[in-house]
Write a structure and sequence with these properties.
single chain, alpha+beta, Immunoglobulin-like, C8orf32 fold, Jelly Rolls, nine-stranded mixed β-sheet, 36% strand, globular
Amino acid sequence: MFLCLATASCCYGQHSEEWLSLSQKDWDIKEAPGEPGAAAVQLYYADFRDDNSRYEFVHRCIKVLSDQGRGYADVEIVVPREYHFEDLQARTIHPDGAVVPFTGKPFDKVVLQHREDKTVAKTFTLPDVTTGSIIEYKYRLTWDLYFHDPVWNVQHDLFTLKESFWLRPYKGPLSTPTAGDRTQLSFVYSNMPEGIQPRDTSAGVELELENVPAFKAERYMPPEDNFKAEVRFFYGGHEVESPEVFWNNLGHRWYAKSERFIGSYSGIKRAAANIAGGETNPEQKLRNLYAYAQQIRNLSFERARTSTEDRKEDLKPNASVADVLARGYGYQNEIAELFAALARAAGFQAEMLRVSSRRDRIFDIKMLSEDQLDVEIVEVMLKGSALYLDPGTKFCPFGTVHWIHTSTTALKLNRNGGVRIVVPTASAEKSVIHRVAQLELDTIGSLRGQIEVEFKGTDALQRRLEALDSDTTGRTRDLEDELLSWLPQGSGVLFLEAQGWNSSEDPLVAKFEVEVPHFASVVGKRLVIPTGLFRMPQMSAFETKDRKYPLYFPYTYEELDNVTIHLPPGYSVETLPDGQDVKLSNTRFITSRSAEEGTVLETKALVVNSIYFQPDQYGNLREFFSRLKASDEEQIVAAPASLGDRRNIDRGVSLKEAAGH
């Protein structure tokens, strides 16, 4: 992967924090090696960290190669919580040697906010940057007591000529259950060439590299962090000796903790009997218990509170599932454990699972961080089969697990430390977007009417969870923006109403007034109408002929469209394309078109029943979506009746089987 890399030993005193000494060779660089047209090249990157002295020093030097590269003058530096940003120095250097220092102060910018948990970056702009300039900045991060496990980000968005890393490990005691007074450091390196690894020396852990290619992300690829070159460090006691020891140790602790919280309480048994309500059907009984757990106030999906606010609202820590039941509130894992307790009390075999998230990173057994498995779900045996349920995720439907916790590693807890399994991905019918359009076409080719969008299963869950971070105005804007992203450019959308925001099981339904100017083309007296009203954002994944990384969709899905277009008075359909039925092993689309009494009826079903496609599958999948795009670009011709009556045309493939594939 790297063109050339080298490791070298050096002592602490050789890790210079001075400005880079630029050579004529640096000024002569006109393009990044192997990357013609690159906007900029990184001449130098350094990350020196001393966990005993509680500081980290970062230094970057970038040469601007084009006008587009001037954007690197706008700098954002994410500062972890509990860290302090200090000693910023920055400058612009021109080819004639003139130096323009940055004399301002950085300001805070919120780059990510989830309820009231926010990520803040220090931002500033380097002065007087032009093509050919070199920009350079360095800073320190310091902390008081708490610190994050170190990470070396080896691969960046720019080709890097030279990189230097150094870490002096922390030597004091840690507050982990097994560390005591003995602290160990473990590190894991990923996506680097064979034989290239950090060196553990008397001065610390060190790594030097040269000619590191830029990381070029691809659309619809799996989480990028799993493919970038990096080194991660982990502190602990004997549990960091190996991944097997680490996860087995955690599995024992998590099992003991969850079983202690679940316990065996007579009040839980009485509650389970009351909630089941005399139901004899096992599945319906389980559904009743699940619905009850979903109604518990879920503190994990509310904004963060201060301890003062908790006291004012009389929110107390729960010590057991009995507390959750009595108080009617709990955090995500507490609600999952309450459901497991109710299910056991009702006679079901219910086990706790610790699940990972693939939203930002796919589980890596070598990454020794318990945060990888921080959420609990429940496995229940129903009619001899394992059913995975997610009662602790607000709005999650029965029989569905939030997609971020599927198709990735989970730890099924038991007294022996647990067993690793994979929670299966839901099939496509568990996530459906159904669009129904009733539209009028005028003689100049513009459409007006109403569109109703129904979201089911995972698609409804995803939008409900996102809406928790917004208000009514924000929800409306998000729905309008999403519909606009599906419609042709220049369309207008007016939100009318939405129903189902606060339900776990019902669809989320939104209605809109829409206008699509010049949707059809006027050719003489005829109207030429595209067969596809709704655009597909997925098509951006297929712009290139080949891929380096797998193609990845967050979850399987179905899209169903029913479009009715009423033609102008006196018009009827003259030509109508045939319907299609195209399938691969895990994908399928079906289209049908018909015309009757001045009305065009179009239906389309797209089913994607896999989330992960290897690069060698990309060609076939690209061809599949190309055919779908071509189908949407076919044309219907309508003409005034005086030009010839061609009514009662039906050229469709039946869609009766579409929902069932």
